[in-house]
Amino acid sequence: MDAIELLMHDHRMVEQLFRDYHAAASAAQRRAVVETLVRELSKHAALEELMVYPLAKKVLSDGDQRIREHLSEHRAVKETLLALDKQSGDDERTSELMDELRREVEEHIREEEGELMPLLRDAVSEEELLRLGRLLARSKQTAPTRPHPNAPDEPPALAFAGPVAAAYDRLRDRLQGRPRT
Predict the structure, then answer these.
(1) Is omega for the bond preceding 156 within 30 degrees of 0, making it cis?
(2) pTM above 0.70, yes or no
(3) Which residue has the higher pLDDT, 158 or 80?
């Protein structure tokens, strides 16, 4: 898959997780979906910020402004993810946060798939998109698994903070008995 196909695949997976949350038959199933969403969206956002957004800034004439808007959306999503990650049970607050997250993510997906991705496809060679897709797929194994809304979201600071956050997240996941992916 090229980078755009891989990111769109992530989007479809996240949309399915929102459906799974609403279809879950128990509090334990809902919590498992929340934990999966936190992990997958955290990895997705970190990789976009580290690899995709810098490319967009470089190749798009309005890349700086466009990416500032996407980073602002990411920050809001990460704050909601952090609040969800801190929830311990399945209560009304969790449901409210999931609704808020769904709205934030749906808007972000609409903007990325409707605007950013077509512009990137036009501006970047297929060979470069394939190379970036392979790099994104490999990097998912070492990306942060938890939201870090106050961490740097742009290189070069992100290049240093990301691996530290990822190592911390994986240690925390292991100590809490959460699945590794």
Answers:
(1) yes
(2) yes
(3) 80
